[in-house]
């Protein structure tokens, strides 16, 4: 709405003028990019002039941030606000990320994104190698909302309208884990000729299994299922997938998408700073007296069952159709 756009712009302006730190500028750049996308929506395009102004402001701030030798998190925020159409040099940002924290799988996902965008198979293989050698996953993208919340409380802690504006937009971009799901790893199976790549993809997925992120758990479990030759490993991956679906159902159950604005606002306030956090979802389930992992009688959708080749009973009972060579991991 117009009110939400005005509130977001007000906060972005405040971050630049009143705070002015590299992190604040990077956060403001993300807000301006969100504003650019909203203003270009068909139902608003007729009512706004200067449709590229927010885009230009975002690009200017990203350029300023990168000249100030930002820390890892701030560089990650600048990367998220990078709009190549404005001449932003994303490869140099991601190179800085991989140099600063090469053990973090997240930075290699960002490198993988660039390789896929440019259809560079050599760079993609290099990024997958980096993922396999990583030791942990620190989803810097998730910290974006946490830092926004901190600045928001400082800026206007009692402004419910601004909080509603904040919750009205998606601050987390396309989940980076999908760049792995749609990489060369997607078409592999345990019978693939390139076993070195199979092993690297499996190792990368095992790193992601440590993540507290719901979407990551969903994608990782399916990838591990298809790349595991051992029956016990496949059963474990399947159980992980069932849990991720159980958590997802619980997480979204209280939000009426997309029409009920009141329900959406309440849901946004409840999960602010901890969206898609598995540990937060489990704590919420426990507080409501519900199982924190999928109960035995929890039913997957027919679509999910089909992906795992299930017939009438679950995988634990050992009844599964042999779909070797077919794609278990479908686009989400």
Gyration radius from CA atoms, angstroms: 21 Å
Shape field: globular
Biggest sheet layout: none
Structural class: mainly alpha
Mean pLDDT figure:
79
Q: Work out the helicity level.
A: 55-70%
Q: Helical segment tally?
A: 17
β-strand amount? under 5%
Distance between the termini: 29 Å
By DSSP, the count of extended strands is 0
Question: Could you give the order of the helices and strands?
Answer: HHHHHHHHHHHHHHHHH
Low-confidence stretches: 42-51, 311-332
Can you summarize this structure?
The protein has 17 helices and no strands. With 332 residues, the protein is mainly α.
Give short descriptive properties of this protein.
332 residues; mainly alpha; globular
Topology overview:
Elements (H helix, E strand, L loop, with lengths): L1 H18 L2 H18 L2 H4 L7 H14 L5 H9 L9 H11 L4 H13 L3 H13 L9 H13 L4 H8 L9 H5 L13 H14 L5 H14 L3 H22 L8 H11 L6 H10 L14 H6 L25
Helix pairs in contact: 1-2, 1-10, 2-4, 2-5, 5-6, 6-7, 7-8, 8-12, 12-13, 13-14, 14-16
What does this structure look like?
The protein is mainly α and 332 residues long. The chain is built from 17 helices and no strands. It has helices at residues 2-19, 22-39, 42-45, 53-66, 72-80, 90-100, 105-117, 121-133, 143-155, 160-167, 177-181, 195-208, 214-227, 231-252, 261-271, 278-287, 302-307. Residues 42-51 and 311-332 have low confidence and may be disordered.
